[in-house]
Amino acid sequence: MYSFMGGGLFCAWVGTILLVVATATDHWMQYRLSGSFAHQGLWRYCLGNKCYLQTESIAYWNATRAFMILSSLCATSGIIMGILAFAHSCTLLTLRHPEFLLEFHSFFVLLALAIYTGVTVSFLGRRFGDWRFSWSYILGWVALLMTFFAGIFYMCAYRMHECRRLSTPR
Questions:
Q1: Are strands 44-47 and 50-53 parallel, antiparallel or unpaired?
Q2: CA 110 to CA 149: how far, in whole Å?
C-alpha cells in the first residue's frame, strides 16, 4: 500500500511541477511571421526577441488559463492530502481524497489542452502556415499523464487498504 502511495506522491509532485512550468511559460506554439520566428503561450507572445502581454480577451485563452489554474490548485491540494495520508495512519477517508483531487486535476488539464488544441488547429493553424506546438504544450500533456497515473496509484492504495481492513478479524 505504501509503495502505491509513494508512487502516487512522486507522480503527483512531478506532474504538478510540469503543469506549473507549462502554464507559466510562453512556448505553447511556434510559428513564422514575416520571415522571423515567433512563439506564444497563455500569457504572452514573443516576436523576435521582444515579448508582449496578450491583452486580448479571447474566450479560448481565458478558458485554457482558467482550467490550467484550477488544475494546479487541485494538484497542489492532492499532494497535500497525499502527504497527510502517507504520514498518518491511513484512514479510508484521507486515502480517498488525493485520488479524487488528482483525477479532477487530470480532467481540468484535459479540458484546457483540448480547447487549446481545437482552436489552434482549426483557427490559428490556418492563419499561420508554418507553425507547430512547442515544448510548453507538450509539458502540459506529460503533466496530464503523470497526475492521471498518480490518481491510479492512489486508487490502488485505497483498494489494498480496503481489502486489508475487510480481511482482518474483528
A1: antiparallel
A2: 14
pTM of the model: 0.83
Closest CA to 137 of 67, 41, 72, 48: 41
| Domain 1-25+58-167: CATH class, spelled out | mainly alpha
pLDDT in tens, 116-168: 999 888 887 677 677 889 999 999 999 999 988 888 888 888 777 655 555 55
Highest mean pLDDT among 17-31, 82-96, 155-169: 17-31
| 120 DSSP 8-state letter | I
Tell me the CB-side half-sphere exposure of residue 4, using CA atoms within 13 A.
Answer: 18
Cell 487498504 sits at which residue?
Answer: 161
